[in-house]
Every structure is written in C-alpha cells, then in structure tokens.
Amino acid sequence: QVQLVESGGGSVQPGESLRLSCAASGSIFSRYNMGWYRQAPEKQRELVALISSGGNTNYRDSVKGRFTISRDNAKNTMYLQMNTLKPEDTAVYYCNAYLGIVPGLGSWGQGTQVTVSS
What's the mean pLDDT in 22-41? Predict the structure, then answer.
C-alpha cells in the first residue's frame, strides 16, 4: 500500500498562489489514480481535483481555471498548483491514491493546512 505525505501549505493573502506536493512511497506510484481533497472547518471533505494514472484530469467547478493538478511519476510526486486563491479555499488539503475507478478509497495523507486571509 502506498504511503502519502503532503507539504506546501501555508498562510497567504487573497490572490496569491501556493503549490502543494504529495510525495508517495511504498508502492508503484505510476499505477495509482490520484486526487486532492479539502476539508474546511465544520464542513464535509470535498473533492478538488483528480488525475488518473494516464494523466487525465478533472476539477470541481469552483477551482477550474485557478488550480492545476499534475504528477511526476519519476519523482513519485503529485502537485496542486493553486493560483488566485480565495478565502473560501481555506481548508486542510489531503491527497488520496486509489486503484480502480472509485475516488476516495485507498490511501490518504495526513493533510496540509491552507489559509487564505487578508
């Protein structure tokens, strides 16, 4: 089973950018479909973006055009480039690795906090 560690979170002002990383170990990273999720205080965890093992991507509507998910299989790492951040993007961001077609199963990282505030 793959182990995941997120990094890159922090506190920024509205309009600024952050890049999150999710480093994988313990299994063959390139086989996994990957996703970024987030959970704001007192809200349910929600899907932000997906990237398949083949590189196909999907985004929730609220981040389209601002966020970009990518992966580097040679580095066993997935990324989330977040531009034009808004206060409503504030949340703990988690990465997920899964096999098959159902996102949200499989392995999870511990999360990284993103705070967007003026």
Answer: 95
